[in-house]
Design a protein that fits this description.
- There is one protein chain.
- By secondary structure, this protein is an alpha+beta fold.
- It is 19% helix and 26% strand.
- It has helices at residues 2-33, 92-95, 181-187; strands at 108-116, 125-126, 133-137, 142-147, 150-159, 162-165, 169-170, 193-197, 200-204, 211-219.
């Protein structure tokens, strides 16, 4: 009986010991399973995305828009409107001439009789055979010339005493060394003015002081 009691006691003690051990083990396990609370969520707060303030807008202000004021387009004052006389201008000599009416010079065969050179105004060069060097104006604005063995025609403009002889269409024959056709044909295109003096027709070529004198050779036929 005593041994049975002792056995029961031993079983109880073992049971208690097992229970105690299990309890202790469970307590440790619970302690181990208790997760360590993470440290405060002290993750670094993102730095505020504060964009760096741009440097003070100290951009150099453009120089004041002081555009150069355009220089007034003041054309240089031209010299007094006194046209420069071309080499060959009749100049002031013709300014004193009286206007010539076309009626007084047309349909007449004017014969080149003499020439006054500006280099020797006191003398006149006589033209041999004036009837071979003629000039005739017509009402339709055309003129006809004879230059020794050549002849031709062109158009003219008469305004007051200003006379312009247009280009002439002429034959081109050689008239010989004694002929003055070359001089005659070179002077006529430069004529700038005309006048009537003592029944003579006077033409003023380009060079001031030059004069061509024509006598009336009668009626001209076109």
């Amino acid at each position: 009986m005593k041994m049975k009691t002792t056995s029961i006691g031993m079983v109880l003690l073992l049971t208690i010991g097992v229970i105690t051990a299990v309890s202790f083990s469970l307590g440790c396990t619970e302690q181990e399973e208790t997760p360590v609370e993470p440290s405060d969520n002290t993750s670094a707060e993102p730095v505020e995305n504060t964009p760096a303030e741009p440097a003070e807008n100290t951009s150099v202000e453009p120089a004041e828009n002081i555009s150069a004021e355009p220089i007034e387009n003041t054309p240089a004052e031209s010299a007094e409107s006194t046209p420069v006389e071309s080499a060959g201008s009749a100049g002031s000599t013709t300014e004193e001439l009286e206007p010539v009416s076309a009626d007084n010079i047309t349909s007449i065969e004017w014969q080149w009789a003499s020439f006054q050179d500006s280099d020797s105004p006191e003398t006149q060069i006589t033209v041999p055979d004036p009837e071979n060097y003629t000039l005739a104006f017509f009402d339709d604005g055309t003129y006809y010339i004879k230059a020794d063995c050549n002849s031709g025609s062109g158009t003219y403009v008469l305004e007051g005493n200003n006379l312009t002889l247009g280009p002439v269409t002429i034959t081109l024959m050689a008239c010989g060394p004694e002929s003055m056709d070359g001089e005659y044909l070179s002077l006529l295109p430069t004529v700038e003015a005309v006048a009537l003096e003592d029944g003579q027709l006077v033409l003023y070529p380009g060079n001031e002081g030059d004069k061509m004198f024509f006598t009336n050779g009668g009626e001209a036929e076109q």
